[in-house]
C-alpha cells in the first residue's frame, strides 16, 4: 500500500469509527470475561465455602460446577458475539473504506 493510500484511509472518518468501535467492543468483552474469571478464582481462593456448597441436600455436585460451566459457556457466547460483529459490521465497514480509498 502506498503512503498516499495509507494517508487517505487513515483520514477517512469511517476508518476512525471502525477502529474505535472495534477497540471499544474488544476491551468491553475482555473486561467482562477477565472480570468473571478473576471473580470466580477469587471466590474459590478466598471463600471456598461458597462454591463448595452442595446444590441440594444429599448431592455430591457442588455449586461451583454449574457456575464454572456457565462461565465457560458465557465466554463462548461472548466470543461468538465478537465474531458476528467482526464478520458483519466490521467487514462491511472495511469493504466500504477500501472501495472508497483505492
TrEMBL record:
<feature type="transmembrane region" description="Helical">
    <location>
        <begin position="25"/>
        <end position="51"/>
    </location>
</feature>
<keyword id="KW-0812">Transmembrane</keyword>
<dbReference type="InterPro" id="IPR007436">
    <property type="entry name" value="DUF485"/>
</dbReference>
<dbReference type="Pfam" id="PF04341">
    <property type="entry name" value="DUF485"/>
</dbReference>
<dbReference type="GO" id="GO:0005886">
    <property type="term" value="C:plasma membrane"/>
</dbReference>
<keyword id="KW-0472">Membrane</keyword>
<feature type="transmembrane region" description="Helical">
    <location>
        <begin position="63"/>
        <end position="83"/>
    </location>
</feature>
<dbReference type="InterPro" id="IPR052959">
    <property type="entry name" value="Inner_membrane_assoc"/>
</dbReference>
<protein>
    <submittedName>
        <fullName>DUF485 domain-containing protein</fullName>
    </submittedName>
</protein>
<keyword id="KW-1133">Transmembrane helix</keyword>
